[in-house]
Design goal:
The chain has 121 residues and is mainly beta. The protein is built from one helix and seven strands. It has one helix spanning 2-11, and strands spanning 15-26, 31-47, 54-58, 61-74, 85-91, 94-106, 109-120.
């Protein structure tokens, strides 16, 4: 029943996304980066409070990011975040990177996923 509630919530403002995944795999002495595409997934993107615009410096230059957005996905979505995997997607004319993803469980059963997004400009 809770899975249906999560899907109902997503349907109130649905977006279909395709995930571009970069995964670093140990190849026995070196790390190789493998790119893939997964989806489509129907998710709900929502604004959150407490985010702030930040400028981040990297070896390739600087980029501006903000963390005003969250994501709700159903139990079957394959969305990941971590040190060895980076999921990105485009929606609403913006590029988002999944910074964290948390399973929502009731009685030990996964009913959906909620995540934090970083909008990259």
């Amino acid at each position: 029943m809770r899975r249906k509630h999560t899907q109902w919530s997503i349907r109130q403002n649905p977006l279909e996304i395709m995930i571009k995944r970069k995964e670093r795999i140990n190849m026995g002495g070196y790390m190789d980066e493998v790119e893939s595409v997964t989806g489509p997934f129907v998710v709900r993107i929502f604004s959150t409070s407490g985010g702030s615009m930040q400028e981040i410096s990297t070896l390739a230059g600087t980029k501006q990011v903000d963390r005003y957005f969250g994501l709700l996905a159903d139990f079957a979505a394959d969305i990941r975040a971590g040190t060895l995997v980076t999921d990105e997607f485009e929606a609403m004319g913006m590029i988002f990177q999944v910074k964290s993803i948390y399973s929502q469980k009731i009685a030990g059963e996964v009913v959906g996923y909620q995540g934090e997004l970083e909008r990259v400009t």
